[in-house]
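Bench log. Compound arrived from synthesis this morning; before running ITC I wanted a structural hypothesis for how adenosine-5'-diphosphate sits in the protein. Inputs:
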Amino acid sequence: MDDLFTTIETPTAKYEQPLGLFINNEFRKARSGRTFQTINPTTEKPIVSVQEADEQDVDDAVKAAQEAFNGSWQKVTPSDRGRMLTKLADLFERDSDILAAIESLDNGKAFTMAKIDVANAAGCLRYYGGWADKVHGQTIDTNPESLTYTRHEPIGVCGQIIPWNFPIMMWSWKIGPAIAVGNVVVIKTAEQTPLSGLYAAKLIKEAGFPPGVVNVISGFGSIAGAAISSHMDIDKVAFTGSTLVGRMVLQAAAKSNLKKVTLELGGKSPNIVFDDADIDNAISWANFGIFFNHGQCCCAGSRILVQEGIHDKFVARFKERAAQNKLGNPFDSSTFQGPQVSQLQFDRIMEYIDHGKNEGATVAVGGERHGTEGYFIQPTVFTDVHQDMKIAQEEIFGPVVTVQKFKDEAEAISIGNSTRYGLAAAVHTKNVNTAIRVSNALRAGTVWINNYNLINYQAPFGGFKESGIGRELGSYALENYTQIKTVHYQLGDALFA
Ligand code: ADP
């Protein structure tokens, strides 16, 4: 292995892995010469070392982005931007086995699920490629002596900070809308999962983007992430991650140059099951709602609320269902749940499980480590849970769910909303009126009715309350990446001669 590329062999793909910082369409070393290891969570062993960006490298990436923004990128038509994004989507599809293998290796997610992530990432890039030449302003009739119109202009250099739970999807959700409307990007991947973003950087060059338009760096949050959020020449920052760090990003933006900020943060989403729900469906969706991606989803349905008439039956059947989820090697085609991403996450989750036990909740299923190697945790279901318990209030970000009982609609809404988060919620009922009334009353950016976790790149996603600011995906995301300029053109004589 040299310092900038190495060959990696996984059970499903052998490929060339870039390791450098991708700045100006080239992979290069970090100025400090520092590197860091990325760990395979299935084996707890290092995979490779990648170059580690610090403030100086962020600065280099910003300069490259600025140069592109003021130079070559200005000459590219919106349609050609769209063509590059759709070409990138094609390349994602061509290399989907490689990208999915990287996700399984670096993040630990099941390969079958990683393939879906890559398909979503490619679809998202293609979707925004389609938008590139369809964003335009208005002409506004103000007075016969003037021509007044608006232009939807790019914001400029966008800093993007992404998490480790859906590395390649988050990369695409961020880059797609930013690039579609003519911005340039410095994106930092999460230190736990740098590999897929670097592979995708290679495809950026192949797709024909001019140098400096998309810069991809690996590095730590407190160094490279902080350098992005406080940089004086970054015009906008988009962050996905914990609410704790989201607050720091917002503060850094306020203290530096008041860059525009969008945040997609944590959640403690209620998944509400009424007596009249189709219980088989509700159990399947509740299981998928919390255990998909090992519970490492900001919108995970981590609080199941069940009406008293079916509570006991639901719990008995849900326990059986949760215990059936197959844990194991991500590359095994029957695996549903792989390891948690890191030792730190594993420890945090196990600590929450201990809290639940000590607070007096009942462990109905799981509650222990699975196996002896890798960061595997048994799917865990807590019953006898009260609203004031830590496990009912705080985001656990793992395969741990609480089940609570409610009497009626009003109580379901009240418990559902009694959290500082507001990312997502779900309602299971056959009664359309109940479904609509309750979904209207829930303070959440997404409400699923008789399903869970369905996210499409055509529809917006984001949080109420402390779950975030702004919306990703759909046409709404384009608003985060454009600023409106109003132009008044004088047609007739001066009004104030
Ligand atoms: P988690 O606790 O789940 O790892 P974080 O919110 O810490 O989630 O991380 C999400 C992203 O935010 C990662 O890319 C991480 O490097 C970055 N990050 C962490 N701390 C900071 C910070 N102080 N400033 C900017 N970015 C940060």
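What the model suggests: The first strand starts at residue 5 and ends at 9. Residues 111-131 form the longest helix (21 residues).
ITC booked for Thursday regardless.
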